[in-house]
Write a structure and sequence with these properties.
131 residues; alpha+beta; 54% helix
Length: 131
């Protein structure tokens, strides 16, 4: 899918930019006014909640998402067969909790964030053993 392309190189670059901006403390942060209390409320409601940071020049945009359920994953998979960008929008719209609204409106910010959401879905490991 769209968010799996060039995962490792761009992920390392993003982490480097975030760390540099945090050290310099020069980035303007857009987080939609989300508070720690709101995050705790989301955790109670959805279980795992992730924060996605996207650095764009001197701006850092932050978005908060919960894990997709099976219904969302079925919709994403179905739409992805004909339009990967639309499938990304389905994933976003069903998992978005709050944060910088510009992340959804700006195509570059959106694609950077959606790549990280793809990493979230591939973040678990499973194994099978013959008994």
């Amino acid at each position: 899918m769209l968010w799996r392309k060039r995962q490792s190189a761009s992920s390392s670059l993003l982490k480097s930019k975030i760390m540099n901006n945090e050290k310099k403390n020069t980035a303007t942060t857009f987080d939609g006014g989300v508070t720690e209390q709101k995050i705790e409320s989301w955790k109670q409601q959805y279980g795992k909640v992730v924060r996605v940071d996207v650095v764009d020049g001197e701006e850092m945009h932050i978005g908060y998402f919960h894990r997709p359920d099976l219904k969302t994953m079925a919709a994403v998979t179905k739409v992805a067969k004909t339009d990967e960008v639309k499938s990304s929008e389905v994933l976003w719209d069903n998992c978005w909790l709050g944060g910088s609204e510009r992340m959804r409106e700006d195509a570059v910010l959106f694609l950077a964030a959606i790549k990280q959401l793809g990493d979230m879905m591939n973040g678990c490991m499973a194994s099978i053993k013959n008994l």
